[in-house]
Design goal:
Blueprint: E1 2-6, H1 12-22, H2 32-37, E2 42-45, E3 53-56, E4 59-65, E5 70-75, E6 78-83, H3 87-91, E7 96-100
Length: 125
């Protein structure tokens, strides 16, 4: 049915929340049932792109490749990539797709670079 990627102790909605936070896309945690109804953090879309949420009542994942209809999610047997057009997922009902809608925070760190010919600051800070 899908490809095993890794194991996690997180459920699907905590897993997605964690991955978005790791990517710098922050939102208040919501379970999949709330995400399915819609939140201010995400706008509903009808043509998903990679990185969008795919949500059923009771399950959420992240679209990997919309052309292949694949998504990544956390299941009891591990983190998997599967087709949302497979028989199993079609039996779950019609998924909804959501795109992150909050402002993306700007990185506030400083970059420092040096080279072998110039041991001073490169001006990137």
């Amino acid at each position: 049915m899908g490809t095993a990627v890794d194991r996690t102790t997180l459920d699907c909605s905590h897993f997605v929340h964690f991955l978005y936070a790791e990517a710098g896309l922050f939102y208040e945690y919501e379970p999949s049932t709330v995400l399915y109804r819609g939140t201010q953090a995400f706008k509903r879309v009808f043509r998903p792109k990679s990185g969008d949420l795919i949500v059923w009542p009771g399950h959420v994942g992240i679209v990997v490749d919309p052309q292949d209809s694949t998504f990544l999610s956390a299941l009891r047997r591990g983190v998997r990539i599967a087709s949302y057009k497979s028989h199993y997922w079609k039996m779950r009902g019609h998924p909804r797709f959501f795109r992150y809608a909050l402002p993306v925070p700007r990185w506030s760190g400083n970059w420092r670079a040096s080279s072998a010919t110039n041991s001073g600051n490169s001006g990137l800070e």
